[in-house]
Design a protein that fits this description.
homodimer; alpha+beta; Arc Repressor Mutant, subunit A; three-stranded antiparallel β-sheet
């Protein structure tokens, strides 16, 4: 991960949660465990490689857990960890702000 | 700005606020109006070009206001708009989460 240059806590968060997809990904995992292809379907704009990298970064931060089931074909599921549930209020606040942004555009102010 | 692919409000927010620097930039503007070079000093990791682009994106979204004072040399200041103040709780929650992340690393869990 990129180095935190400012030492600031906001930067620390954004190094992990910034980018376009990570919090969106977390918002889908709030619904429960998901398989890789479920997530791809939820996020048509993300490439397979980027989704893999984003999942791995969140996994390394212990915010999501990856479980491999030894079925055939192998089933891999992702879910939020207890620490990952700390992201719930962050997802909520981003959802509210996004709704406000969209409403503003609709009202012709944006 | 990139297109919102999922229609989701979280994505709508992250298209605007995602990335490493924008919320950090907003956090410095919470202290009051700042000049371009003040912001550069606060964020040693950001390039001049990226800072310009980030400021412009937030200005186009009416979250910050750019004021040019016709002094010599010209003075340019950036400040949060009323709409931009909607970002205060977002910056706060990111700050709290960043503090938690840093404390976790210190405690050897991360």
């Amino acid at each position: 991960m990129k180095k935190n240059m400012s030492g600031c806590s906001v930067e620390e968060s954004m190094r992990l949660l910034g980018g376009r997809w990570r919090l969106l990904l977390v918002s889908y995992l709030l619904e429960g465990p998901k398989r890789f292809n479920d997530l791809r379907r939820n996020m048509p704009g993300i490439s397979q490689r980027m989704l893999t990298l984003d999942l791995r970064a969140l996994e390394e931060a212990d915010l999501i857990k990856r479980t491999v089931y030894p079925t055939s074909p192998i089933k891999v599921e992702y879910e939020l960890t207890e620490d990952g549930k700390r992201l719930v209020p962050i997802v909520e606040i981003m959802k509210d702000f996004g709704l406000w942004l969209k409403a503003r555009v609709k009202n012709g102010e944006g």
